[in-house]
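Recall from the previous chapter that SMILES is a line notation for molecules. Here it describes flavin-adenine dinucleotide.
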Amino acid sequence: MLRLTDITLPLDHAPAHLDAAVCARLDIAPADLERVTVFRRGNDARRKNAIKLVYALDVIVRDEADVLARFAGDPHVKPTPDTAYKFVARAPEGWDGPRPVVIGAGPCGLLAALVLAQMGLKPIIIERGKAVRERTKDTWGLWRRSVLDPESNVQYGEGGAGTFSDGKLYSRIKDPRHLSRKVLTEFVKAGAPDDILTEAHPHIGTFRLVTMVMSMRETIERLGGEYRFGTRVEDFAIGEDAHGQRRIEGLHLSSGDYLEARHVIMAVGHSARDTFEVLHARGVYMEAKPFAIGVRIEHPQSWIDKARYGACAGHPILGAAAYSISHKASNGRTVYSFCMCPGGRVVAAASEEGRVVTNGMSQYSRAELNANSGLVVDVSPETDFPGNPLAGIALQRKLEELAFVAGGSNYQAPGQKLGDFLADRPSTALGSVTPSYQPGVHLTDLKQCLPDYAVEAIREALPVFGRQVPGYDHPDVVMTGVETRTSSPVRITRGRDFQSLNTRGLYPAGEGAGYAGGILSAAVDGIRLAEALALELVGPQA
Ligand SMILES: Cc1cc2nc3c(=O)[nH]c(=O)nc-3n(C[C@H](O)[C@H](O)[C@H](O)COP(=O)(O)OP(=O)(O)OC[C@H]3O[C@@H](n4cnc5c(N)ncnc54)[C@H](O)[C@@H]3O)c2cc1C
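With both inputs in hand, we obtain:
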């Protein structure tokens, strides 16, 4: 089979034009073309009045060797890569050895547990939050009744942080073993839409994510895995092994139980601040890590569609338009769009009392009125929070507390119109754009809950973005704050064997450990860590 890339066709091309494009590209007769399968489809909207679909196709031709010889050196005509997942280890029949433990049932913990279960290792999954159905009710409790459950919310619970999200599934990780294909294939098996396997920028949407993680749980339990929901790892028992090296020996759980555990994948996410504090106190090596802070900005989706797609705006194949923009400000800060959610809503993503945090989500349809995105500014340990590894958490907490107060101390979020923000005056009334954050937005002045360097940089960037995306800096556009959970403020550093630098048996994984950003890269990291642990536990597959 051959993989053809960069095959472009007009937006409304007829299906048969795909075969014709292949024959033209390979200079073969229709009779020599046996099969064409779409591997990936994207769009090229750089010329709004001539938007193109861009395909990667898998094709079977009568004389493959001849085609490959004629196109030797052509980067767009290659043998189709073998993307099938190959297990690196398997538990021997009747395995009753030590069971691996996975802390956290987010994308990272979920894929780690699934692959460990598929290898026959019967993992135990410890999740502080609740199973996804109950968790959904608790999350709505904040959005509808301003009642925050610090253990069951947008950050904590089955499915992890990304469950109430747009479920965008793309990342820029290097992936020579095509592990992201394994992730997407498992997601589809568990009920995600098929098109995540072929869309260049796939997304699942919140409701589909909920049913998907439930189905993956059923699979893991059927394979001998065990879930413990509503159970927080409160402390880590660390001893010394025969070589005098520090080694994890067990976990103290909020249930009061002690769980002996010498092989632990720790996939706790970027918001597990209490867990980071315990790990630090137990001497597990970690460092402060750069992240970003800012606000969430909202535009009518129709404005973004028009700006990106011109007359093709609203075309069913294109759907709701997304954008990705950045600007290097004169104060040295980079301002960029983060986790853009087309046709979605801004959500209350707090996990601690007395703090307000924003993020975004969309349903699979992306059919809501507004487009929203984080508009954030980079911060780093060297410049903004020097000192101990946990200093970044202190910065996040301070901004979230300021936002809580600025929002009226009732989990409403502070909001401001873009025009007022640029004019350095508080907002008192909305214009043509209605914010979507629940339980509500309190109009005020966002500068009271942002560092000066961030206010300055965002003010400079907005007109620049307005020239790139017409309407972006319209005075009625609404900004809601604060966006602080953009990635982990710490890195729990691991060695080449994926174990903690100074604690054997502990495998720091995913976004919380500072090794992933987003659902797909976190899930891929989960597979990698599961493989490393399995190789340590049972050795390589014969
Ligand atoms: C609202 C929102 C929308 C997002 N949208 C997208 C998107 O569209 N696309 C995308 O790619 N990314 C998105 N993200 C980011 C994405 O969700 C994360 O990058 C991803 O979930 C990280 O996966 P993880 O498994 O490493 O950690 P998490 O998903 O954070 O999971 C960690 C889990 O560990 C549990 N845990 C923490 N501490 C303990 C403890 N001590 N004991 C037991 N359990 C514990 C938590 O309850 C949680 O369930 C979004 C995030 C949010 C909050």
